[in-house]
Known about the structure:
By secondary structure, this protein is an alpha/beta fold. It has helices at residues 13-24, 46-55, 70-79, 100-109, 154-160, 172-183, 210-217, 224-241, 246-270, 276-290, 299-315, 328-335, and strands at residues 2-8, 32-39, 59-64, 85-88, 94-95, 117-127, 135-140, 150-153, 190-200. The chain has two domains: 1-207, Alpha-Beta Complex (Spore Coat Polysaccharide Biosynthesis Protein SpsA, Chain A); 210-336. Strands 1, 2, 3, 4, 5, 6, 7, 8 and 9 form a nine-stranded mixed β-sheet that branches. It starts with a strand and ends with a helix.
Amino acid sequence: MIDIIIPIYNTDKNILLRCLNSIYMQTEINKINVILVNDGGNTDYDDIIAFFNKHYRNIILIGYKDNKGPAYARQYGIDNSFSPYFMFIDSDDTLATPISVKVLLDTMLEDGKPKSAIASTFYEIAAESYNSNHTYLLEYKEDFTWLFGKLYNRDFINKYQIKFLTDYKSNEDAGFNSCIKLCCDQNYPIIRIDDITYYWHNNTNSITRKDNSAYSFGNGQDDCFYGYCKNMEYAILFALERGIDFRKIESFAYHCLCNIYLQYIENQARAPHLISPKLSMAQEFYNNVFHYFNYNFNLEYAITEYNIIMKSSYDKNKLWNIIPQISFFDFLNQIK
């Protein structure tokens, strides 16, 4: 009934076992298929697969030769699985409790009415700073940016033909979930629950944290800033092509613009030597998206989304020790 899709790229076997053990302790294990997607890695996992298949016969390994990144791997997992519902786990993360899947599935099936997705609460086991080994728990409640702790309805995904943008190796989760947010409605709502179902573990070798978090502050096409711009552009054009409510899309576009500003000031503070290309990246997003709104700037939407984004950022300590060097409106003037 549920496919759990796990992209792997040379994941340490002990770390993968930690992830899989959190799945195989689930009370609903007989309703689960585990899909490991080898994203071009060269590590042999046959012994692990044989161990779990000896007892459960519900784990398979699929994949391809070249490393293509998490977006491609996740889409490959969707395209090669068939259960009515699916979810994702990163190979270095775990489900939080033995009833994590049960809670998500029960909510999906509750009252017999269709839903697009279920979004639970998850915890990040976060580092105190970018170079720190000291960690603390950071709660993500009512989140629909990350893939963590979500259960998706395949019928809804197929109805709108929602797919990952596979051209870039970052922020693919935000792009995928944004398409769902824009397409969902009262007939296929997103249901948010308080239950904690997922732990996002601190792994210094992960894509988002290795090399001093170069993913977050780099200036290449595979880095966070450009990946966010392109995935949000993709989601907005995706919704426009499907005739989604125009005001909903416009409000979301301002949300994205404020988020791009937030990432810009964070990058400017933490990696100023890499900031120069980011204005042109932001300008590309603005030009590719806002011409659909005739470049008419809606101050009300901008202020509303700005306040939401900044409050959330301070709550999550994203702007720790940062004094913005450019105001939001000066930033806009530079990218227009």
